[in-house]
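Batch job 17 of 40 flagged for manual review because the log was empty.
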Amino acid sequence: MDQTELKAAVEALLARDKNLRGYGIRVNVDRNTVYLTGVVDTLSEKEYLAALVSALPGVDRVVPDIAISTDSAINDGAVLAEVAEELQVARVDPKHIGAKVKDGVVTLIGRTDDPAELATAREAAAKARGVKGVTTTVRLRKDDRETLAAIFHRQVKNDREEGKD
């Protein structure tokens, strides 16, 4: 596929996609690298756009020069409220994972046993209006509680080492 055909394929894909067709994303192609320029409302839309175009046959690389904007000014407090709402909708346990926001960048905070919960939280935060990026300091922890069997075996091992057979 030549560069003109690839550009036409990308443009057709964006025109068909109900989530992206209203944004008027501009497309340029050079040596199978697709350059996307425009504005979307959320980080998740930007990520979706890049993944969608990357999956097209003939695309070697995608360079998404995509800004994230909203219809009106949104401050960090409003972004945090949007993120909290998205985390709630995604059923992320607020006792495990929370968020803080600085200049539109969300930092997920807390602890969880479940890597899937962290992935869900990241996806949910990226859907919130005004989010420019998502980072995490969430610590994944394993269950620290010993089972009764583990305690028993440890005690038996200690008794043997002390000659208390």
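Reviewer: the log was empty due to a logging misconfiguration, but the result itself is present. The chain has a mean pLDDT of 87. Unflagging and moving on to job 18.
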